């Protein structure tokens, strides 16, 4: 059976927690952030969890993680 390879593009975008939850960066935080409210700015600093269907695909793309 051939080796299972990791999709490197997925590794660069997603981080897995200890319990194998897939976390990603919050979107729209590169520029034009001054007009955001404080609540939005603080929320953008945190990572968000992927949806269940996306998480399943990510875990399949990262077999060794």
Q: Tell me the major beta sheet.
A: 3 strands, antiparallel
Task: Note the quaternary state here.
Answer: single chain
Uncertain parts: none
Intertermini distance: 19 Å
Order of helices and strands: HEEHEH
Structural summary, described in words:
The structure is a single chain. The chain has helices at 8-13, 38-45, 52-61, and strands at 14-16, 22-25, 47-49. The protein is of the alpha+beta class. It has one domain (8-61). The chain has a 3-stranded antiparallel β-sheet with strand order 1-2-3. A hairpin with a 5-residue loop joins strand 1 and strand 2. The model has no long low-confidence stretch (mean pLDDT 94).
Helices and strands in order, then pairings?
Layout: H1 8-13, E1 14-16, E2 22-25, H2 38-45, E3 47-49, H3 52-61
Antiparallel strand pairs: 1-2, 2-3
Keywords:
single chain; 65 residues; alpha+beta; three-stranded antiparallel β-sheet; 3 helices; 3 strands; 37% helix; 15% strand; elongated
In short:
The protein has 65 residues and is of the alpha+beta class.
């Amino acid at each position: 059976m051939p080796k299972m390879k990791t999709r490197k593009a997925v590794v660069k975008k997603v981080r897995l927690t200890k319990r194998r939850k897939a976390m990603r960066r919050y979107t729209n935080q590169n520029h034009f952030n001054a007009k955001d409210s404080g609540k939005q700015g603080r929320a953008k600093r945190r990572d968000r969890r992927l949806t269940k269907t996306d998480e399943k695909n990510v875990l399949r793309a990262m077999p060794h993680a």
